[in-house]
Amino acid sequence: MTDILDALDEQQRQAAEALLGPVCILAGAGTGKTRTLTHRIAHGVASGVYTPDRVMALTFTTRAAGELRSRLRALGAGRVAARTFHSAALAQLSFFWPQLVGGRLPEILPGKGRLLGQAAESLRMRVDTAVLRDLAAEIEWRKVRRIPLDDYARLSSRPLPPGLDMHAVVELQQRYEDLKDEQRRLDFEDVLLVTAGMLEAEQRVADQVRQQYRFFVVDEYQDVSPLQQELLELWLGPRTDVCVVGDASQTIYSFAGASSEYLLGFASRYPDATEVRLERNHRSTPAILGAANRLMRGRPGALELVAVDGDLASPEPTVTRWDSDAAETNGVADAVAAQLAAGVAPERIAVLYRVNAQAVALATALAERGISSRQVGGTKFFEIEAIKRAVLELTSLSRTGSPKGLYETVADVALANGWSAHAPDSQGAVRERWEALGALVELADQAPEGMTLAQFVAELQERQSMQHEPTMPSVVLSTLHGAKGLEWDHVHIVGLTEGLLPISHAKGFAAIDEERRLLYVGITRARRTLALHWSAEGLRSRPREPSRFLAELRSGTPGAARSRAR
Fold first, then answer.
1. Which tens digit of pLDDT belongs to each residue from 264-280?
2. At 420, phi and psi to the nearest 5?
């Protein structure tokens, strides 16, 4: 028990020792949020305060839930349930549905697009794929706010998908719901809605669930939606043993229903709550944190981050003005090439941007310089065809037996699928396949001594289920949204102009503040250096203005970001 707490700093330890009652941990970027959360749970289990199978740790992505499970297992608390809101609700719904309704649970829709297309076709409406995506987002927005369709129809200020008026949008949503009922299907939001309805209507179900889970921990609480908050309250019942962890400055999913109000209002709902602030940043240099603090100063819930390990002489963030988009793209690619030439590993460099459309030119410019890149949110490692074939072959060999050792077996399978000891000269798909297979071989090379092929295959399967992909030697390209939860030594943020950041459709104070938080997330991904870029000229020689946020980064305390003209 002492060893568990010894791994924490003073602020983290204070949070980990608060085991009972309502607890709110305000955790800034890079302050060891996940470490604190998992050590707190493990401490509760080791001290006997928690029975492990009565603890539920909730988060928002499968990857984050897998990371929690992995860390809890390493700390001796592997029996603690760590799930997303959706997976926890689905497990309960699957268990109780046969008892309450009879038969099997309806099929869960993998996505809304196809059924929405059928709805549009049945109504003889012509809509393209982009409009269908916008309609799906509208359905999700409405449902997570628990807004009935009749009330939604009266929202006069709601922006709608292009080419559709409110009547058409409501008609399409109603037809979508009718088709879903006819086909006995549920979408992801229905899983939460029906589970909440079940707990509200069936007291014995609520009692059974509350008997199973006594203590709740919610990670990334700033991202909770009204529907998820309601479900959490139903799981808790009259009890108050709930710990929430979050950072209001990293609320970047308001468009999908997330609200930091529940985090910021936690103390008012629970007047006896224990509140702990984590502001000791273990990731970034003082110069980078200075920029982040200036950007968020005075915003609700903003924390003042302080560097723990940073080099006091670290370089200040730079702001570079480029003459055009092409100059910016090539300049960033040249800067990345210089970092690689200086000995920086490619996977320690990231280029971040506001919208996916910016990735193509960046990837092309890097490839022209012989630099491999990979896009966050692109094809997942275990979905690459060469990796799928290699894993299938390794699985087969693990059953039949291989006469060679683990490394030799994996290397042979990789060679048969296109890997070689030397990197190919070409870029593109061939290079990507080589890097992916190389990462597989590297996993085998780093495996603990004595690991069998069967154990290695089991680890690969676990990695795939947890979305824990091996690191590939490529420069990372990512949207600012996709970068959340990740970090790199060297970060370039491009496209810092009005219309891109803040994005052109961000209207009003709340929307602009969300764009500010998005930039804050990007800045706090950087460990050692941060370079900010903008171009003065866009398509068809249209002049651009620098993002309003750049002026704020340069203002304030001495030593703020400097600007260089290119």
1. 999 999 999 999 999 99
2. -145, 165
